[in-house]
## 1
Amino acid sequence: MGILERLYLHPTPPARVERNQDKRQKKFKKKWIEVDRYIAQRLGPSDPVLDMALKAREAAGLPDINVSPNQGKLLMLLAQTIRAHTILEIGTLAGYSTIWLARALAPGGRLITLEAKPRYAKIALANIAHAGLSNRVDLRLGRALDSLPALSAEGPFDFVFVDADHENMPEYFQWALKLSRRGSLIVVDNVVRRGTVLHAGASKPEIQGIRRFYDLVAAEPKVSMTAIQTVGVKGHDGFAIGLVTADP
Ligand code: SAH
Ligand code: DHB
Ligand code: MG
Protein backbone atom coordinates (compact mmCIF):
# COMPACT_ATOMS: atom_id res chain seq x y z
CA MET A 1 0.00 0.00 0.00
CA GLY A 2 1.39 3.44 -0.93
CA ILE A 3 1.79 6.25 1.58
CA LEU A 4 -1.25 8.15 0.36
CA GLU A 5 -3.48 5.10 0.55
CA ARG A 6 -2.23 4.42 4.05
CA LEU A 7 -2.81 8.05 5.01
CA TYR A 8 -6.23 8.41 3.54
CA LEU A 9 -7.75 4.97 3.42
CA HIS A 10 -6.51 3.28 6.54
CA PRO A 11 -9.09 3.91 9.25
CA THR A 12 -6.62 3.93 12.13
CA PRO A 13 -3.18 4.86 10.84
CA PRO A 14 -0.24 3.68 12.92
CA ALA A 15 1.71 6.35 14.80
CA ARG A 16 4.48 6.24 12.19
CA VAL A 17 2.05 7.22 9.45
CA GLU A 18 0.72 10.05 11.63
CA ARG A 19 4.27 11.35 12.04
CA ASN A 20 4.87 11.20 8.30
CA GLN A 21 1.64 13.09 7.80
CA ASP A 22 2.86 15.81 10.18
CA LYS A 23 6.19 16.00 8.32
CA ARG A 24 4.40 16.32 4.99
CA GLN A 25 2.20 19.07 6.38
CA LYS A 26 5.24 20.92 7.78
CA LYS A 27 6.97 20.77 4.40
CA PHE A 28 4.00 22.35 2.64
CA LYS A 29 2.78 24.64 5.37
CA LYS A 30 5.39 27.33 4.72
CA LYS A 31 4.09 27.73 1.18
CA TRP A 32 0.45 27.63 2.29
CA ILE A 33 1.18 30.48 4.69
CA GLU A 34 2.98 32.52 2.03
CA VAL A 35 0.10 32.08 -0.42
CA ASP A 36 -2.46 32.96 2.26
CA ARG A 37 -0.49 36.15 2.98
CA TYR A 38 -0.27 36.97 -0.73
CA ILE A 39 -4.04 36.61 -1.11
CA ALA A 40 -4.71 38.65 2.02
CA GLN A 41 -2.37 41.42 0.85
CA ARG A 42 -3.93 41.58 -2.61
CA LEU A 43 -7.60 41.03 -1.82
CA GLY A 44 -8.12 41.81 1.84
CA PRO A 45 -6.85 45.36 2.34
CA SER A 46 -5.18 45.78 5.71
CA ASP A 47 -7.64 46.83 8.36
CA PRO A 48 -6.48 48.33 11.66
CA VAL A 49 -9.62 47.18 13.53
CA LEU A 50 -9.24 43.53 12.57
CA ASP A 51 -5.47 43.67 13.10
CA MET A 52 -6.06 45.12 16.55
CA ALA A 53 -8.53 42.35 17.41
CA LEU A 54 -5.87 39.76 16.60
CA LYS A 55 -3.22 41.65 18.56
CA ALA A 56 -5.52 41.87 21.59
CA ARG A 57 -6.25 38.15 21.31
CA GLU A 58 -2.57 37.38 21.28
CA ALA A 59 -1.67 39.83 24.05
CA ALA A 60 -4.31 38.26 26.30
CA GLY A 61 -2.86 34.80 25.67
CA LEU A 62 -5.98 33.45 23.94
CA PRO A 63 -5.31 30.56 21.55
CA ASP A 64 -4.45 31.25 17.92
CA ILE A 65 -7.52 29.46 16.53
CA ASN A 66 -9.63 32.27 15.04
CA VAL A 67 -10.49 31.95 11.35
CA SER A 68 -7.77 33.21 9.01
CA PRO A 69 -8.18 36.67 7.44
CA ASN A 70 -9.15 35.10 4.11
CA GLN A 71 -11.69 32.83 5.78
CA GLY A 72 -13.08 35.83 7.66
CA LYS A 73 -13.59 37.64 4.38
CA LEU A 74 -15.26 34.55 2.91
CA LEU A 75 -17.69 34.52 5.85
CA MET A 76 -18.46 38.20 5.29
CA LEU A 77 -19.02 37.69 1.55
CA LEU A 78 -21.33 34.72 2.14
CA ALA A 79 -23.41 36.68 4.65
CA GLN A 80 -23.53 39.67 2.30
CA THR A 81 -24.59 37.47 -0.60
CA ILE A 82 -27.73 36.38 1.24
CA ARG A 83 -28.27 39.87 2.75
CA ALA A 84 -28.30 38.42 6.23
CA HIS A 85 -30.28 40.33 8.86
CA THR A 86 -29.84 37.79 11.63
CA ILE A 87 -26.61 35.92 12.26
CA LEU A 88 -25.82 33.34 14.93
CA GLU A 89 -22.24 32.45 15.78
CA ILE A 90 -21.34 29.56 18.08
CA GLY A 91 -17.80 30.13 19.43
CA THR A 92 -16.65 33.75 19.79
CA LEU A 93 -13.06 33.53 21.08
CA ALA A 94 -11.81 37.14 20.72
CA GLY A 95 -14.53 38.22 18.33
CA TYR A 96 -12.43 38.18 15.17
CA SER A 97 -14.90 36.22 13.01
CA THR A 98 -17.68 38.09 14.82
CA ILE A 99 -16.39 41.39 13.44
CA TRP A 100 -16.17 40.05 9.88
CA LEU A 101 -19.71 38.68 10.11
CA ALA A 102 -21.25 41.69 11.85
CA ARG A 103 -19.86 43.94 9.11
CA ALA A 104 -21.90 41.92 6.62
CA LEU A 105 -25.19 42.57 8.40
CA ALA A 106 -27.86 44.38 6.45
CA PRO A 107 -28.91 47.72 8.01
CA GLY A 108 -30.73 47.09 11.28
CA GLY A 109 -29.39 43.53 11.42
CA ARG A 110 -28.26 41.69 14.57
CA LEU A 111 -25.67 39.08 15.42
CA ILE A 112 -25.76 36.81 18.46
CA THR A 113 -22.50 35.08 19.41
CA LEU A 114 -22.10 32.37 22.06
CA GLU A 115 -19.00 31.96 24.21
CA ALA A 116 -18.38 29.74 27.23
CA LYS A 117 -15.30 31.42 28.71
CA PRO A 118 -15.75 34.73 30.54
CA ARG A 119 -12.10 35.64 30.03
CA TYR A 120 -12.46 35.23 26.26
CA ALA A 121 -15.79 37.05 26.23
CA LYS A 122 -14.21 40.05 27.92
CA ILE A 123 -11.57 40.38 25.20
CA ALA A 124 -14.21 39.82 22.52
CA LEU A 125 -16.48 42.54 23.90
CA ALA A 126 -13.59 45.02 23.89
CA ASN A 127 -12.73 44.10 20.29
CA ILE A 128 -16.36 44.38 19.21
CA ALA A 129 -16.67 47.78 20.89
CA HIS A 130 -13.46 48.97 19.26
CA ALA A 131 -14.92 47.89 15.92
CA GLY A 132 -17.98 50.05 16.60
CA LEU A 133 -20.28 47.04 16.48
CA SER A 134 -21.58 46.81 20.06
CA ASN A 135 -25.04 47.97 19.03
CA ARG A 136 -25.40 45.11 16.53
CA VAL A 137 -23.66 42.31 18.42
CA ASP A 138 -25.06 40.48 21.41
CA LEU A 139 -22.63 38.15 23.20
CA ARG A 140 -24.25 35.44 25.31
CA LEU A 141 -21.93 34.04 27.94
CA GLY A 142 -22.32 30.36 28.81
CA ARG A 143 -22.05 26.93 27.28
CA ALA A 144 -23.64 27.01 23.86
CA LEU A 145 -25.89 24.03 24.54
CA ASP A 146 -27.31 25.95 27.51
CA SER A 147 -27.83 29.18 25.54
CA LEU A 148 -29.26 27.72 22.34
CA PRO A 149 -32.75 26.66 23.54
CA ALA A 150 -33.64 30.25 24.44
CA LEU A 151 -32.78 31.45 20.93
CA SER A 152 -35.87 29.87 19.40
CA ALA A 153 -37.69 33.06 20.34
CA GLU A 154 -35.07 35.21 18.55
CA GLY A 155 -34.73 33.38 15.27
CA PRO A 156 -34.92 32.38 12.60
CA PHE A 157 -31.32 33.13 11.72
CA ASP A 158 -30.35 33.80 8.12
CA PHE A 159 -26.77 32.67 8.69
CA VAL A 160 -25.26 30.38 11.33
CA PHE A 161 -21.51 29.96 11.84
CA VAL A 162 -20.58 26.94 13.96
CA ASP A 163 -17.05 27.27 15.37
CA ALA A 164 -16.89 26.01 18.97
CA ASP A 165 -15.84 22.63 20.44
CA HIS A 166 -15.81 19.81 17.92
CA GLU A 167 -17.25 17.25 20.31
CA ASN A 168 -20.67 18.87 20.17
CA MET A 169 -20.55 19.77 16.47
CA PRO A 170 -23.50 17.47 15.65
CA GLU A 171 -25.67 19.07 18.33
CA TYR A 172 -24.68 22.55 17.12
CA PHE A 173 -25.63 21.55 13.59
CA GLN A 174 -29.03 20.33 14.79
CA TRP A 175 -29.59 23.60 16.60
CA ALA A 176 -28.40 25.61 13.62
CA LEU A 177 -31.00 23.89 11.47
CA LYS A 178 -33.71 24.24 14.08
CA LEU A 179 -33.05 27.98 14.33
CA SER A 180 -32.98 28.45 10.54
CA ARG A 181 -35.53 28.94 7.78
CA ARG A 182 -35.61 27.87 4.16
CA GLY A 183 -32.78 29.80 2.49
CA SER A 184 -30.57 30.09 5.57
CA LEU A 185 -26.89 29.32 5.25
CA ILE A 186 -25.03 27.14 7.76
CA VAL A 187 -21.22 27.23 7.82
CA VAL A 188 -19.21 24.88 10.01
CA ASP A 189 -15.46 25.26 10.67
CA ASN A 190 -12.94 22.50 11.39
CA VAL A 191 -14.57 19.67 9.48
CA VAL A 192 -11.35 18.11 8.18
CA ARG A 193 -8.70 18.49 10.91
CA ARG A 194 -5.60 17.44 8.91
CA GLY A 195 -7.55 14.49 7.57
CA THR A 196 -8.11 12.97 11.01
CA VAL A 197 -11.82 13.03 10.13
CA LEU A 198 -11.06 9.76 8.30
CA HIS A 199 -10.14 7.92 11.49
CA ALA A 200 -13.32 5.93 12.00
CA GLY A 201 -11.85 4.08 14.97
CA ALA A 202 -10.47 7.17 16.72
CA SER A 203 -11.32 7.38 20.39
CA LYS A 204 -11.01 11.18 20.54
CA PRO A 205 -14.47 12.67 21.10
CA GLU A 206 -13.51 15.61 18.87
CA ILE A 207 -12.96 13.34 15.87
CA GLN A 208 -16.08 11.33 16.61
CA GLY A 209 -18.02 14.60 16.94
CA ILE A 210 -16.98 15.68 13.45
CA ARG A 211 -17.84 12.26 12.02
CA ARG A 212 -21.26 12.25 13.72
CA PHE A 213 -21.82 15.69 12.21
CA TYR A 214 -21.24 14.28 8.70
CA ASP A 215 -23.58 11.37 9.49
CA LEU A 216 -26.34 13.79 10.50
CA VAL A 217 -25.87 15.98 7.43
CA ALA A 218 -25.87 12.93 5.16
CA ALA A 219 -29.23 11.87 6.58
CA GLU A 220 -30.78 15.37 6.63
CA PRO A 221 -33.05 16.07 3.64
CA LYS A 222 -33.59 19.73 4.61
CA VAL A 223 -29.95 20.76 4.13
CA SER A 224 -27.84 20.64 1.00
CA MET A 225 -24.25 20.77 2.15
CA THR A 226 -20.70 20.26 1.01
CA ALA A 227 -17.30 20.72 2.59
CA ILE A 228 -14.23 22.31 1.09
CA GLN A 229 -10.77 21.42 2.34
CA THR A 230 -8.67 24.43 3.21
CA VAL A 231 -4.92 24.94 3.52
CA GLY A 232 -3.21 28.08 4.68
CA VAL A 233 -2.06 29.71 7.89
CA LYS A 234 -4.20 27.23 9.85
CA GLY A 235 -2.77 24.14 8.19
CA HIS A 236 -5.07 21.59 6.59
CA ASP A 237 -8.71 21.78 7.65
CA GLY A 238 -12.08 22.49 6.09
CA PHE A 239 -15.24 24.57 5.95
CA ALA A 240 -18.65 22.95 5.47
CA ILE A 241 -21.24 25.15 3.75
CA GLY A 242 -24.90 24.22 3.62
CA LEU A 243 -28.13 25.70 2.34
CA VAL A 244 -31.34 25.02 4.24
CA THR A 245 -33.71 23.92 1.50
CA ALA A 246 -36.93 23.54 3.52
CA ASP A 247 -38.39 25.13 6.62
CA PRO A 248 -37.23 23.03 9.58
N1 SAH B 1 -15.06 31.99 15.81
C1 SAH B 1 -13.82 32.44 16.43
C2 SAH B 1 -12.99 31.27 16.93
C3 SAH B 1 -13.70 30.39 17.90
S1 SAH B 1 -12.58 29.29 18.70
C4 SAH B 1 -13.01 33.20 15.39
O1 SAH B 1 -12.85 32.68 14.28
O2 SAH B 1 -12.55 34.31 15.67
C5 SAH B 1 -13.72 28.32 19.57
C6 SAH B 1 -14.38 29.03 20.72
O3 SAH B 1 -15.46 28.22 21.19
C7 SAH B 1 -13.47 29.27 21.93
O4 SAH B 1 -13.51 30.61 22.30
C8 SAH B 1 -14.06 28.41 23.02
O5 SAH B 1 -13.95 28.95 24.32
C9 SAH B 1 -15.51 28.34 22.59
N2 SAH B 1 -16.22 27.19 23.13
C10 SAH B 1 -15.75 25.93 23.30
N3 SAH B 1 -16.69 25.15 23.81
C11 SAH B 1 -17.79 25.92 23.97
C12 SAH B 1 -19.10 25.69 24.45
N4 SAH B 1 -19.48 24.49 24.90
N5 SAH B 1 -19.98 26.72 24.47
C13 SAH B 1 -19.62 27.93 24.01
N6 SAH B 1 -18.40 28.21 23.54
C14 SAH B 1 -17.50 27.22 23.52
C1 DHB C 1 -8.62 24.62 16.66
C2 DHB C 1 -8.89 25.32 15.50
C3 DHB C 1 -10.11 25.91 15.32
O1 DHB C 1 -10.42 26.59 14.21
C4 DHB C 1 -11.07 25.80 16.30
O2 DHB C 1 -12.26 26.38 16.11
C5 DHB C 1 -10.80 25.12 17.47
C6 DHB C 1 -9.56 24.52 17.64
C7 DHB C 1 -7.30 24.00 16.87
O3 DHB C 1 -6.47 24.09 15.97
O4 DHB C 1 -7.11 23.41 17.92
MG1 MG D 1 -12.53 26.96 14.14
Note: The pocket of 3,4-dihydroxybenzoic acid (ligand 2) is lined by residues 65, 163, 189-190 (CB under 6 Å).
## 2
Amino acid sequence: MKDRILVKLKEAYPDCISGAQLAESLGISRVAVWKHIESLKESGYEIVAKKGRGYCLEHPEQAIIPVLISENLADPHWGTPIFYTGQTQSTNLWARQLLEDQHLPEGTLIIASQQTGGRGRLGRTWASPRGGLYFTLILRPALNLKNASLLSLVMAVACARSLRQHTGCACRIKWPNDIFIQGRKVGGILLEARGEMDRLDYVIAGIGINVNLSSQDFPEEVRHLAVSLAMVAGHSFDLNQLLVSLLEDLRQDYYLFLQKGFQPFREVYQEYCIHWQQPIAVNTGKELIQGIHRDLDVNGSLLVETADGEITSISTGDVQLISYQEE
Ligand code: BTN
Protein backbone atom coordinates (compact mmCIF):
# COMPACT_ATOMS: atom_id res chain seq x y z
CA MET A 1 0.00 0.00 0.00
CA LYS A 2 2.86 2.40 0.84
CA ASP A 3 4.31 1.99 -2.66
CA ARG A 4 0.91 2.75 -4.18
CA ILE A 5 0.65 5.94 -2.13
CA LEU A 6 4.12 6.97 -3.28
CA VAL A 7 3.25 6.29 -6.91
CA LYS A 8 0.09 8.44 -6.59
CA LEU A 9 2.08 11.26 -4.98
CA LYS A 10 4.76 11.03 -7.63
CA GLU A 11 2.18 11.07 -10.44
CA ALA A 12 0.50 14.13 -8.90
CA TYR A 13 3.79 16.05 -8.60
CA PRO A 14 4.18 19.08 -8.63
CA ASP A 15 0.59 19.15 -7.39
CA CYS A 16 -0.56 17.92 -4.03
CA ILE A 17 -3.11 15.20 -3.50
CA SER A 18 -5.59 15.28 -0.64
CA GLY A 19 -5.95 12.58 1.98
CA ALA A 20 -9.56 12.11 0.89
CA GLN A 21 -8.56 11.59 -2.75
CA LEU A 22 -5.85 9.12 -1.77
CA ALA A 23 -8.26 7.25 0.49
CA GLU A 24 -10.90 6.99 -2.21
CA SER A 25 -8.61 5.96 -5.04
CA LEU A 26 -6.88 3.32 -2.91
CA GLY A 27 -10.02 2.06 -1.16
CA ILE A 28 -8.73 2.71 2.37
CA SER A 29 -9.76 5.09 5.18
CA ARG A 30 -8.29 8.57 5.62
CA VAL A 31 -6.87 7.47 8.95
CA ALA A 32 -5.10 4.60 7.20
CA VAL A 33 -3.71 7.06 4.62
CA TRP A 34 -2.45 9.31 7.40
CA LYS A 35 -0.77 6.37 9.18
CA HIS A 36 0.95 5.24 6.00
CA ILE A 37 2.13 8.77 5.25
CA GLU A 38 3.57 9.11 8.76
CA SER A 39 5.40 5.82 8.39
CA LEU A 40 6.72 6.84 4.94
CA LYS A 41 8.01 10.09 6.42
CA GLU A 42 9.76 8.12 9.15
CA SER A 43 11.49 6.03 6.47
CA GLY A 44 12.88 9.22 4.95
CA TYR A 45 10.43 10.10 2.18
CA GLU A 46 10.07 13.87 1.92
CA ILE A 47 6.29 14.21 2.12
CA VAL A 48 4.86 17.52 3.24
CA ALA A 49 1.26 18.30 4.12
CA LYS A 50 0.21 21.65 2.63
CA LYS A 51 -2.69 23.48 4.15
CA GLY A 52 -5.87 23.08 2.13
CA ARG A 53 -4.05 21.21 -0.67
CA GLY A 54 -3.04 17.85 0.74
CA TYR A 55 0.16 15.85 0.57
CA CYS A 56 3.07 16.56 -1.74
CA LEU A 57 6.17 14.46 -2.42
CA GLU A 58 9.18 16.74 -2.54
CA HIS A 59 12.09 15.82 -4.83
CA PRO A 60 10.24 12.86 -6.37
CA GLU A 61 13.25 11.95 -8.54
CA GLN A 62 15.13 11.09 -5.31
CA ALA A 63 12.45 8.77 -3.96
CA ILE A 64 13.27 5.10 -4.48
CA ILE A 65 9.96 3.31 -4.97
CA PRO A 66 10.43 -0.48 -5.19
CA VAL A 67 7.32 -1.09 -7.29
CA LEU A 68 8.59 1.34 -9.94
CA ILE A 69 11.71 -0.80 -10.15
CA SER A 70 10.10 -4.26 -10.12
CA GLU A 71 7.37 -3.50 -12.64
CA ASN A 72 9.82 -2.07 -15.17
CA LEU A 73 12.38 -4.85 -15.15
CA ALA A 74 12.87 -6.66 -18.46
CA ASP A 75 13.53 -9.95 -16.67
CA PRO A 76 11.67 -10.54 -13.40
CA HIS A 77 14.46 -12.83 -12.15
CA TRP A 78 17.02 -10.05 -12.12
CA GLY A 79 16.42 -7.20 -9.70
CA THR A 80 13.94 -9.11 -7.53
CA PRO A 81 13.17 -9.82 -4.78
CA ILE A 82 13.85 -6.26 -3.63
CA PHE A 83 14.96 -5.46 -0.10
CA TYR A 84 14.66 -1.70 0.34
CA THR A 85 15.23 0.56 3.29
CA GLY A 86 15.56 4.32 3.68
CA GLN A 87 18.83 3.99 5.56
CA THR A 88 21.25 1.24 6.45
CA GLN A 89 24.90 0.98 7.37
CA SER A 90 25.90 -0.71 4.13
CA THR A 91 23.86 -2.68 1.60
CA ASN A 92 26.75 -5.18 1.26
CA LEU A 93 26.67 -5.74 5.00
CA TRP A 94 22.88 -6.04 4.99
CA ALA A 95 23.14 -8.55 2.14
CA ARG A 96 25.55 -10.67 4.19
CA GLN A 97 23.25 -10.56 7.20
CA LEU A 98 20.27 -11.58 5.07
CA LEU A 99 22.26 -14.45 3.55
CA GLU A 100 23.01 -15.81 7.02
CA ASP A 101 19.32 -16.52 7.60
CA GLN A 102 17.88 -17.29 4.20
CA HIS A 103 18.60 -18.35 0.66
CA LEU A 104 18.56 -15.36 -1.69
CA PRO A 105 18.35 -16.20 -5.39
CA GLU A 106 20.66 -14.77 -8.01
CA GLY A 107 19.48 -11.32 -9.02
CA THR A 108 18.22 -10.33 -5.55
CA LEU A 109 18.42 -6.54 -5.14
CA ILE A 110 19.27 -4.92 -1.82
CA ILE A 111 19.03 -1.15 -1.91
CA ALA A 112 19.00 1.86 0.40
CA SER A 113 18.42 5.58 -0.09
CA GLN A 114 21.42 6.32 2.09
CA GLN A 115 24.15 4.45 3.93
CA THR A 116 25.64 5.45 7.25
CA GLY A 117 28.75 3.29 6.83
CA GLY A 118 29.13 2.75 3.08
CA ARG A 119 32.22 0.68 2.34
CA GLY A 120 34.64 0.98 -0.54
CA ARG A 121 37.53 -1.05 -1.90
CA LEU A 122 40.78 -1.41 0.04
CA GLY A 123 39.06 -0.71 3.35
CA ARG A 124 37.95 2.76 2.37
CA THR A 125 34.60 4.37 3.15
CA TRP A 126 31.99 5.32 0.56
CA ALA A 127 30.13 8.57 1.20
CA SER A 128 26.47 7.70 0.73
CA PRO A 129 24.16 10.67 1.32
CA ARG A 130 20.63 10.72 -0.05
CA GLY A 131 20.52 11.31 -3.81
CA GLY A 132 22.84 8.50 -4.89
CA LEU A 133 22.24 4.91 -5.87
CA TYR A 134 23.55 2.40 -3.33
CA PHE A 135 22.69 -1.17 -4.10
CA THR A 136 23.88 -4.74 -3.92
CA LEU A 137 23.11 -7.64 -6.22
CA ILE A 138 23.40 -11.26 -5.16
CA LEU A 139 25.14 -13.33 -7.83
CA ARG A 140 25.67 -17.06 -7.91
CA PRO A 141 28.04 -17.55 -10.83
CA ALA A 142 29.67 -20.93 -11.51
CA LEU A 143 33.14 -19.35 -11.39
CA ASN A 144 36.38 -19.78 -9.52
CA LEU A 145 37.93 -16.97 -7.48
CA LYS A 146 40.31 -15.93 -10.28
CA ASN A 147 37.46 -15.31 -12.69
CA ALA A 148 35.72 -13.20 -10.07
CA SER A 149 38.33 -10.49 -10.74
CA LEU A 150 37.31 -10.50 -14.37
CA LEU A 151 33.69 -10.22 -13.28
CA SER A 152 34.57 -7.01 -11.46
CA LEU A 153 35.96 -5.57 -14.72
CA VAL A 154 32.84 -6.66 -16.61
CA MET A 155 30.64 -4.88 -14.07
CA ALA A 156 32.69 -1.72 -14.54
CA VAL A 157 32.16 -1.92 -18.31
CA ALA A 158 28.44 -2.51 -17.81
CA CYS A 159 28.08 0.47 -15.46
CA ALA A 160 30.22 2.89 -17.46
CA ARG A 161 28.57 1.98 -20.76
CA SER A 162 25.07 2.06 -19.30
CA LEU A 163 25.53 5.39 -17.54
CA ARG A 164 27.03 6.88 -20.66
CA GLN A 165 24.10 5.71 -22.74
CA HIS A 166 21.37 6.74 -20.31
CA THR A 167 22.78 10.02 -19.00
CA GLY A 168 24.99 11.22 -21.84
CA CYS A 169 27.85 11.69 -19.34
CA ALA A 170 31.23 10.57 -20.64
CA CYS A 171 31.86 7.82 -18.08
CA ARG A 172 35.16 5.97 -18.18
CA ILE A 173 36.97 3.37 -16.09
CA LYS A 174 39.98 3.47 -13.79
CA TRP A 175 41.30 -0.02 -13.10
CA PRO A 176 39.86 -2.20 -11.84
CA ASN A 177 36.33 -0.86 -11.56
CA ASP A 178 36.15 2.81 -10.64
CA ILE A 179 33.77 4.83 -12.78
CA PHE A 180 35.23 8.21 -13.64
CA ILE A 181 34.08 11.34 -15.41
CA GLN A 182 36.45 14.18 -16.23
CA GLY A 183 39.13 12.72 -13.96
CA ARG A 184 36.84 12.43 -10.92
CA LYS A 185 35.14 9.45 -9.40
CA VAL A 186 31.40 9.07 -10.00
CA GLY A 187 30.90 5.42 -9.07
CA GLY A 188 32.50 2.37 -7.55
CA ILE A 189 31.99 -1.36 -7.26
CA LEU A 190 32.79 -3.57 -4.30
CA LEU A 191 32.65 -7.31 -4.95
CA GLU A 192 32.77 -9.66 -1.99
CA ALA A 193 32.87 -13.36 -2.70
CA ARG A 194 32.28 -16.37 -0.52
CA GLY A 195 33.10 -19.97 -1.27
CA GLU A 196 36.02 -22.17 -2.21
CA MET A 197 38.93 -21.05 -4.42
CA ASP A 198 37.66 -23.19 -7.30
CA ARG A 199 33.91 -22.73 -6.82
CA LEU A 200 32.25 -19.60 -5.50
CA ASP A 201 29.21 -19.93 -3.30
CA TYR A 202 27.96 -16.42 -3.97
CA VAL A 203 29.16 -12.94 -4.87
CA ILE A 204 27.86 -9.80 -3.20
CA ALA A 205 28.17 -7.09 -5.82
CA GLY A 206 27.82 -3.63 -4.28
CA ILE A 207 27.51 -0.65 -6.57
CA GLY A 208 27.50 3.01 -5.60
CA ILE A 209 26.78 5.80 -8.07
CA ASN A 210 26.87 9.51 -7.27
CA VAL A 211 23.71 10.52 -9.09
CA ASN A 212 22.03 13.68 -7.78
CA LEU A 213 24.65 14.84 -5.30
CA SER A 214 26.02 18.35 -5.21
CA SER A 215 29.61 19.16 -4.33
CA GLN A 216 28.58 20.03 -0.73
CA ASP A 217 27.12 16.54 -0.27
CA PHE A 218 30.60 14.99 -0.39
CA PRO A 219 32.86 15.01 2.67
CA GLU A 220 35.38 17.82 2.33
CA GLU A 221 38.37 15.49 2.03
CA VAL A 222 37.03 13.84 -1.16
CA ARG A 223 35.28 16.86 -2.68
CA HIS A 224 38.05 17.55 -5.19
CA LEU A 225 38.16 13.88 -6.24
CA ALA A 226 34.46 13.13 -6.60
CA VAL A 227 31.71 14.20 -8.97
CA SER A 228 28.07 13.32 -9.57
CA LEU A 229 26.11 12.73 -12.75
CA ALA A 230 23.91 15.73 -11.94
CA MET A 231 26.94 17.99 -11.50
CA VAL A 232 28.18 16.98 -14.95
CA ALA A 233 24.82 16.95 -16.76
CA GLY A 234 23.45 20.08 -15.07
CA HIS A 235 20.19 18.38 -14.11
CA SER A 236 19.06 15.57 -11.85
CA PHE A 237 18.03 12.06 -12.83
CA ASP A 238 15.16 9.86 -11.71
CA LEU A 239 16.78 7.24 -9.48
CA ASN A 240 14.23 4.50 -10.27
CA GLN A 241 14.58 4.92 -14.03
CA LEU A 242 18.33 5.09 -13.94
CA LEU A 243 18.50 1.99 -11.74
CA VAL A 244 16.19 0.01 -14.04
CA SER A 245 18.37 0.77 -17.07
CA LEU A 246 21.52 -0.02 -15.10
CA LEU A 247 20.09 -3.34 -13.91
CA GLU A 248 19.14 -4.32 -17.43
CA ASP A 249 22.63 -3.58 -18.77
CA LEU A 250 24.27 -5.37 -15.84
CA ARG A 251 22.10 -8.42 -16.49
CA GLN A 252 22.97 -8.59 -20.18
CA ASP A 253 26.70 -8.14 -19.63
CA TYR A 254 26.79 -10.57 -16.68
CA TYR A 255 25.20 -13.40 -18.66
CA LEU A 256 27.32 -12.65 -21.71
CA PHE A 257 30.39 -12.93 -19.49
CA LEU A 258 29.21 -16.26 -18.03
CA GLN A 259 28.68 -17.60 -21.55
CA LYS A 260 31.64 -16.16 -23.43
CA GLY A 261 34.15 -15.03 -20.81
CA PHE A 262 36.02 -11.71 -20.89
CA GLN A 263 36.78 -11.72 -24.63
CA PRO A 264 33.69 -9.68 -25.68
CA PHE A 265 34.66 -7.02 -23.12
CA ARG A 266 38.38 -6.65 -23.75
CA GLU A 267 38.13 -4.02 -26.42
CA VAL A 268 35.46 -1.97 -24.66
CA TYR A 269 37.44 -2.09 -21.42
CA GLN A 270 40.47 -0.76 -23.27
CA GLU A 271 38.39 1.97 -24.92
CA TYR A 272 36.86 3.08 -21.60
CA CYS A 273 40.03 2.79 -19.51
CA ILE A 274 41.50 6.25 -18.77
CA HIS A 275 45.10 5.09 -18.37
CA TRP A 276 45.64 2.59 -21.18
CA GLN A 277 49.23 3.09 -22.45
CA GLN A 278 49.58 5.95 -19.96
CA PRO A 279 52.04 6.49 -17.11
CA ILE A 280 50.59 5.40 -13.77
CA ALA A 281 51.64 4.69 -10.20
CA VAL A 282 49.98 1.77 -8.44
CA ASN A 283 49.85 1.54 -4.69
CA THR A 284 49.57 -2.18 -3.99
CA GLY A 285 49.45 -1.73 -0.24
CA LYS A 286 53.01 -3.09 -0.05
CA GLU A 287 54.81 -0.90 -2.58
CA LEU A 288 54.35 1.85 -5.14
CA ILE A 289 54.94 0.63 -8.67
CA GLN A 290 55.45 3.21 -11.40
CA GLY A 291 55.39 2.58 -15.10
CA ILE A 292 53.29 2.53 -18.25
CA HIS A 293 50.04 0.61 -18.21
CA ARG A 294 50.46 -1.75 -21.16
CA ASP A 295 47.70 -4.34 -20.97
CA LEU A 296 45.63 -6.73 -18.84
CA ASP A 297 46.54 -10.38 -18.36
CA VAL A 298 44.06 -13.26 -18.61
CA ASN A 299 42.99 -12.76 -14.98
CA GLY A 300 42.36 -9.06 -15.41
CA SER A 301 45.57 -8.05 -13.61
CA LEU A 302 47.31 -4.85 -14.71
CA LEU A 303 50.45 -5.28 -16.77
CA VAL A 304 52.76 -2.37 -16.08
CA GLU A 305 56.06 -1.75 -17.85
CA THR A 306 58.52 -0.32 -15.34
CA ALA A 307 61.54 1.90 -16.12
CA ASP A 308 63.84 -1.14 -16.53
CA GLY A 309 61.60 -2.47 -19.30
CA GLU A 310 60.24 -5.33 -17.17
CA ILE A 311 56.51 -6.12 -17.21
CA THR A 312 54.99 -6.44 -13.73
CA SER A 313 51.57 -7.97 -13.16
CA ILE A 314 49.47 -6.32 -10.43
CA SER A 315 46.34 -8.06 -9.16
CA THR A 316 45.20 -5.53 -6.57
CA GLY A 317 45.90 -1.90 -5.78
CA ASP A 318 44.99 1.69 -6.32
CA VAL A 319 45.94 3.35 -9.60
CA GLN A 320 47.08 6.95 -9.55
CA LEU A 321 47.15 8.81 -12.83
CA ILE A 322 50.41 10.60 -13.43
CA SER A 323 49.45 12.83 -16.32
CA TYR A 324 45.74 12.76 -16.86
CA GLN A 325 44.26 14.39 -19.93
CA GLU A 326 40.64 13.96 -20.96
CA GLU A 327 40.44 13.75 -24.71
C1 BTN B 1 34.90 1.66 -4.31
O1 BTN B 1 35.07 2.27 -5.37
O2 BTN B 1 35.72 1.77 -3.40
C2 BTN B 1 33.70 0.78 -4.17
C3 BTN B 1 32.50 1.54 -3.65
C4 BTN B 1 31.28 0.66 -3.52
C5 BTN B 1 30.13 1.37 -2.85
C6 BTN B 1 28.90 0.52 -2.85
S1 BTN B 1 27.48 1.42 -2.36
C7 BTN B 1 26.54 -0.03 -2.24
C8 BTN B 1 27.45 -1.06 -1.63
N1 BTN B 1 27.41 -0.98 -0.18
C9 BTN B 1 28.59 -0.60 0.33
O3 BTN B 1 28.83 -0.44 1.54
N2 BTN B 1 29.48 -0.42 -0.66
C10 BTN B 1 28.90 -0.69 -1.95
Note: The pocket of biotin is lined by residues 90-92, 115, 118-121, 124, 126, 134-136, 178, 188-190, 206-208 (CB under 6 Å).
